Amino acid sequence: MIKGIGSWLVKHSKVSPERLALVYNERRFTYAEFNERVNRLSHALLNLGVRKGDRVDALLLNTNEMMEAVFACAKIGAIFVPINFRLSVDEVLYIVNDSRAYHFIYDVRMRPVVDQLRLKDSSLQEYIHVGNNPHEEDSLYEELIAGASNAEPEFDVVLDDIHLMMYTSGTTGKPKGAMLSHGNTQWNAINCIHSIPSDNSDITLCVAPLFHIGGMSVFTLPLLYKGGTVILDDGFDPSRVLQKIHEEKITSIFLVPAMWQALTVVPNFESYDISSLRFAVSGGAPCPITVIEFYQKRNIPFYEGFGLTETAPFVSILDKENTVRKNGSVGKEPVHTTVRIVDPNDRDVPPGEVGELIVQGPNIMFGYWNKPEATKEAIKNGWFYTGDLAKFDDEGFIYIVDRKKDMIITGGENVYPIEIEQVLYRHENIAEVAIIGYPDEKWGESVKAIVSLKDKSQTLTVQDVASFLDGKIARFKIPKQVEVVEALPRNATGKILKTVLRQQVQV
């Protein structure tokens, strides 16, 4: 019987027990050590009453405990639910109660939120504390591990069993729990390794948050599948990222565009040796062209990826050979995933025409937890409807045009904000930009640019923007309003919250 992802560690601990698996701060774990800690945590959870199919929620940072919990739950057939540690207590409470979890693992740094959570009416029965200063009623993580068996758990876990439930970022409405199976994660790893050919000598730096599918499954889980090394960093500091690449000879890293952009303004960027990088991947949101060009000029192999929580996440990748020639594209789908672009009647659109991107393959989630209607709406006849508008070019490269909900219709013309944003990012004084629509009695909607500036002592008017865009895009796409703000609102994964911006326009 094929086992789930927990079998990866079993195999690696037998074949290459001394190979370095995981690094967090000063702690370094070989595959044998990592597997033993996972086994002990598995038995500790069983002793606390966790059973196959139970949800184990966690408020953890990018630490070894996070990865131990992922694999411990996997070995006993439990479902691990990592929660965004930047959420408010009420938002955490919603996920806890929606997932109906009884067990909760949390980092000492999250204690202020957890202390508030205890006062709420939740499903939780057991708190497991990582670090010092626990609540008096908590179980202690290290004590549980020290007192539990290191034997391999004897559970039948198959690829169709759910092992991970990740809540979508919730840029609109309440977040939904995407149920990802062992098979989803394993096939995603195979897709990744096939398209971004890592081997067991590779070292990845995971600084993107592990509660996000990009941090968890672009390099972290695929490289553990392959038998490589994962270095964890629990806070994003641009200078420290460059220093770790320099010192640890990092070969691969995934960052969201806001992180890649932050690295570009480190004053002494050129003093760090980051030539060890073989794979620099951006995803989670469109990456400004100027940022991509920054790394290309420095001969850093830069890949642009596209994926979603619901697709575990790999949908497409633009490889380093085409990043210049096909700038703006998200590439092509991997070998074990199929994509189509369809019109409202589910007919394939020809190259150059815009439609909705739909995805099929073994990496597609099983559905949304406890939301059958939302699942039926998202998955039809085996195809996942992404809600992203896209087009193919004549060579089959995919271009994401925008989210369906973000498209602006002005005077009967479709306007795709990403197109305008990418041009505006070339303005010498624009640091961030978001294009949204606002109600217009004459045109239905009109275009508005919300920007933050590099030099905040300067101004930027509608006329300035119109002059800059003149001749670069069609006139009906040029913003009729421009608002300068200190910073654009983002969620924890770096996505600009256009929903918040649109709500502010309505006020």
Give a structural overview.
This protein is an alpha/beta fold and 507 residues long. The chain contains 16 helices and 26 strands. β24 (430-440) and β25 (444-453) form a beta hairpin. α7 (182-195) packs across α9 (220-226). The radius of gyration is 23 Å and the shape is globular.
Q: How do you describe this structure in short?
A:
Residues 419-495 form the AMP-binding enzyme C-terminal domain. By secondary structure, the protein is of the alpha/beta class.
Question: Which helices and strands appear, and what pairs or packs with what?
Answer:
Layout: H1 6-15, E1 20-24, E2 27-30, H2 31-47, E3 55-59, H3 64-76, E4 79-82, H4 89-99, E5 103-107, H5 111-118, E6 126-130, E7 139-140, H6 141-146, E8 162-167, E9 177-181, H7 182-195, E10 203-206, H8 213-217, H9 220-226, E11 229-232, H10 238-248, E12 252-255, H11 257-264, E13 279-282, H12 289-296, E14 302-307, E15 314-318, E16 338-342, E17 355-360, E18 367-368, H13 372-378, E19 379-380, E20 383-392, E21 398-403, E22 408-410, E23 413-415, H14 417-424, E24 430-440, E25 444-453, H15 462-469, E26 481-484, H16 498-506
Parallel strand pairs: 1-11, 3-4, 3-5, 5-6, 6-7, 10-11, 10-12, 12-13, 13-14, 25-26
Antiparallel strand pairs: 1-2, 8-9, 9-18, 14-15, 16-17, 17-20, 19-20, 20-21, 22-23, 24-25
Helix pairs in contact: 1-2, 2-3, 4-5, 7-9
Keywords: Ligase
Pfam family, one: AMP-binding_C
Domain AMP-dependent synthetase/ligase: 12-369
